[in-house]
Amino acid sequence: MTKLRAACVQMRSTTNPDENVEVFSELVGQAVRGGASYIQSPEMTGLVVQDRGRLFDLVKTADEDLLIACAKSLAKEHNIWLHVGSTAILRADGKVANRAFVIDPGGLIRATYDKIHMFDVDLDNGESWRESAVYKPGKSAVIADIAGARTGLAICYDMRFPQLFQDYAQAGAEILTSPAAFTRQTGKAHWHILLRSRAIENGAFMIAAAQGGDHQDGRETFGHSLIVNPWGEIIAEIGHDEPGVVVAEIDLDEVRQARAKIPNLVNGRAYTLEIPGGRTGKDAA
After folding, report:
1. Could you confirm whether 115 is annotated as catalytic?
2. Which of 8, 14, 65, 181 is the most exposed place for a label (fewest CB within 10 A)?
3. Class of 3-269 per CATH?
4. Domain layout of the chain by residue ranges
5. pLDDT tens-place string over residues 123-132
6. Which candidate in 43, 72, 174, 254 is catalytic?
7. Which positions ≥6 away from 93 have C-beta within 8 Å?
């Protein structure tokens, strides 16, 4: 298969998992009616809550999680690939993972990915985030076969680490993903630039479903879910922060064409880094 219809589901998830599952189901239905065969939801689809105690009161294992059960059912009912961008999942060791799920049209989980890079930052508007204080970072990058397309899995802050996406592309990934709950401040400055850059650098489609708006727990997210083609052009966007759906056709031949025009993935060369004082990059390490 060289073509598929892909959709981003944009949400404003709350601290109530039941409400989030209901909205998720409604928006997936809209995407299905738009002809989508691959549907991606944002980071933290099932639960957005800052309070650590509240999170641990609500978080479930993957087998017990309402959202994952719903996603399996919807994928099977509609014969679609459903990519839960992420949700909070209780691990066997009692810690929490920020975990993505890829579910096939039979309702089976085909891949999972735990967010590798933790959002530990201090922004100049007073926002301070320490994701590593709550979530256990993943250790493995994951490529999933989605409807015949090799797809690299990532989540939100991962997009600021281009080597991850280059590794995916060099391993044959044609689609890159970065579902997110991007802050409003950083989103205004960097969201479009980063996603388009990752697509251009790797000659790949980039699909990024997002959270958007003012959330119950007090955070503010940017929205603007995007689908970007391998030439860096935005082919679909929800141009606001309200919940919604956007659908676009993905033609995997465009990946081959872009990589043939700009073959940077195979043109890289080894080098050493010279540092004042006579040391090399390797010595400095």
Report:
1. yes
2. 14
3. alpha beta
4. 3-269
5. 666 555 467 6
6. 43
7. 136
